[in-house]
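Example for tutorial group B:
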């Protein structure tokens, strides 16, 4: 925020992101990240200039004739360093540049890891307007969570039946306990590990880039095999405890809808009715040709991928893939059809296991009313500008910094729903349709 005060030219919407064009794709990068890169570049330039200056004055002085013989000796001593001194100076400068360059690379890597990618060509990327709590009447603010934004307050509202249209938003952090890595966690996140397994990727996000896939489908197909992303259910992984929160809320008839960015298919494996789920980034339950759009037999596509082949369309021989939304593709229609009403009707928003780095999904958190409480359960902190956690007048945002499983368990316990929740999660015995199928064929 300090930065914004210092740059009066920036208006409210410009505060948040800067659009940067990589080839033909517009990607939004948060201003601090852009500033960080720009700062690093500036540092390098300055260091470069400084190092040049350290060498140049000596050379310049050397070129200047002096009229005083006594001083000349002195000057020459300063102005004409010995060859060893010159080499040492140059090495110093090169070292400094090298250090700065490494720093820049590190900062750039961090920045890339924190890219706000834009999934969904047609959705555009509406700019966020930073929320000002003081624009809400004080009495109204007090009524949201009794002036005490805590998990306890939210659980009291749930217990008392105050919330009837709960919307849940989830991301990859929901499935890490099942053994599926998330994307952006610094050590184990896919975007870090992919860099090692596929050094040929220009940037790790390319694995979900449509034009890259058309040219180089192997990395995605390998990932698909490893995480079993293609087909109904998931044969390799089971839902986590946190996945069952949506089912519990559905059983209590207070779940308006769960919006997930996840493509692992685990939400439905819990038994959550399909109409209560929006897979915002698509999923592997269906597949189609990326050239002609022809729907494919998903199990056939899966078979080819599992046999290390590249699935081809019977109609046009184009490459096929599961209907996971890639960068450069449109989001599923269902997302656009349902989000407006769902977020308008939402009376409690629960966000779990997502860094909220990808638009338009991350902007949904601003689509609920100003008097609606928002609970975030996440291991790491989330972009400040999306919530009021750090605002002294925060009246509606609760941050539960924990794993999704632990946070959900705590919420459920506070609501007094421990035993009904335990029943649901206990029934989680080989829930995946494919696991079941595998078991049957074994008999
Ligand atoms: P990210 O990897 O960006 O964020 C996952 C978040 O979950 C991070 O903030 C982690 O700290 C947190 N986390 C990890 N394990 C957790 C746990 N057990 N409990 C609680 N929090 C945990 O993943 P997403 O936000 O889902 O696109 O990423 C969004 C999209 O970016 C994905 O849908 C994907 C990617 O490009 C596609 O798949 C097309």
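The residue assignment follows.
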């Amino acid at each position: 925020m300090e930065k914004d005060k210092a740059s009066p030219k920036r208006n409210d919407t410009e505060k948040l992101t800067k659009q940067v064009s990589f080839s033909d794709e517009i990607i939004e990068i948060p201003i601090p990240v852009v500033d960080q890169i720009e700062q690093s570049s500036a540092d390098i330039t300055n260091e470069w200039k400084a190092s040049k200056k350290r060498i140049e004055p000596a050379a310049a002085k050397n070129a200047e004739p002096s009229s005083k013989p006594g001083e000349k000796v002195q000057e020459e001593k300063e102005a004409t360093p010995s060859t060893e001194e010159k080499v040492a100076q140059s090495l110093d400068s090169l070292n400094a540049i090298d250090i700065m360059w490494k720093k820049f690379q590190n900062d750039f890597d961090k920045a890339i890891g924190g890219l706000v990618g834009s999934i969904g060509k047609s959705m555009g990327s509406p700019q966020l307007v930073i929320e000002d709590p003081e624009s809400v009447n004080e009495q109204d603010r007090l009524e949201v969570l009794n002036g005490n934004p805590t998990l306890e307050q939210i659980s009291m509202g749930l217990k008392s039946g105050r919330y009837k249209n709960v919307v849940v938003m989830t991301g990859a952090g929901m499935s890490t306990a099942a053994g599926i890595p998330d994307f952006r966690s610094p050590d184990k996140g896919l975007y870090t590990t992919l860099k090692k397994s596929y050094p040929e990727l220009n940037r790790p996000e390319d694995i979900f880039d449509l034009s890259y896939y058309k040219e180089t489908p192997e990395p995605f197909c390998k990932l698909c095999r490893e995480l079993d992303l293609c087909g109904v259910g998931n044969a390799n992984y089971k839902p986590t405890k946190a996945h069952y929160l949506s089912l519990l809320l559905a059983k209590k008839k207070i779940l308006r809808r769960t919006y997930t960015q996840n493509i692992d298919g685990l939400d439905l494996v819990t038994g959550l009715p399909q109409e209560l789920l929006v897979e915002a980034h698509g999923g592997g339950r269906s597949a189609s040709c990326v050239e002609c759009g022809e729907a494919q037999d998903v199990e056939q596509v899966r078979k080819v991928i599992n046999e290390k082949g590249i699935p081809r369309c019977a109609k046009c021989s184009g490459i096929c893939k599961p209907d996971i939304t890639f960068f450069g593709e449109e989001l599923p229609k269902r997302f656009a059809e349902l989000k407006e009403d769902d977020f308008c009707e939402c009376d409690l928003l629960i966000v779990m296991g997502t860094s909220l780095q990808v638009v338009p999904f991350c902007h949904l958190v601003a689509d609920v009313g100003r008097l609606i409480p928002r609970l975030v359960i996440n291991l790491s902190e989330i972009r400040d500008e999306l919530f009021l956690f750090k605002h002294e007048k925060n009246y509606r945002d609760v941050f539960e910094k924990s794993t999704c499983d632990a946070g959900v368990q705590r919420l459920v316990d506070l609501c007094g729903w421990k035993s009904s929740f335990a029943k649901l999660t206990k029934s989680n015995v080989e829930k995946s349709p494919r696991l079941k199928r595998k078991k049957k064929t074994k008999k």
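The chain has 16 helices and eleven strands. Compare this with the pattern of hydrophobic and polar residues in the output above.
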